[in-house]
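Student:
Attend to each token:
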Amino acid sequence: MSDPVWWSRWLTALAIGSCVAAGCSNGPAESAPPPAPAVAPAAAGAGPFTIGGKVPPASGGPPSIVILQPPSPTDVPPSPAPPFMDQVQQTFIPAVLMVRSGQPVEFRNNDDVLHNVRVREDGTHSPAFNVAIPTGEKFLFTFQRDGFYDVGCDIHPAMAAQIVATTSPYVAVADREGNFSIADVPTGDYKAVVYAGAQKIERDIMVAAGQTAFDLTKP
């Protein structure tokens, strides 16, 4: 019969060797790192998105305009600084300014001559305001109603511009080829309204992952 002491020592050595091979420790057991939080399947494509596409290009007049009207009012906050229209070298800049109804707009004069700014509704010709703006000065105004507004200067009749007021924050002025882009558009259904010269196009569209490019050249 084998020596009991030798047999006990052999079993102890075998146990220690097995523990070393398995990475055992004499200290307290280390807890496994927590699993990574699960990501909802829709999170990667939930938006908002930058959408773009094509509208009929402008021909001679102001550039084409795109407005996405959501089905209900949005809570998108206004920009930290109000949009502005400047006057430089007897020119309104930009020639077309998109503004949100109910939020202030700044009119500046960085020209070296006195200007007045005359604004009236395009459809009714009713005046919105008419003020003189000396060099280096500015004037704040809030458009309360959606619509198109013509901008002129009585001192320099060749100066002209246009303002488009809308409650929607999702708007764009297309380039001369009719390309447009609108950033930060949430997923959802919209009515796309296009003004291209005398032409008005309305389309119901849905913005979603994989649906961010739209051909709005036809009703």
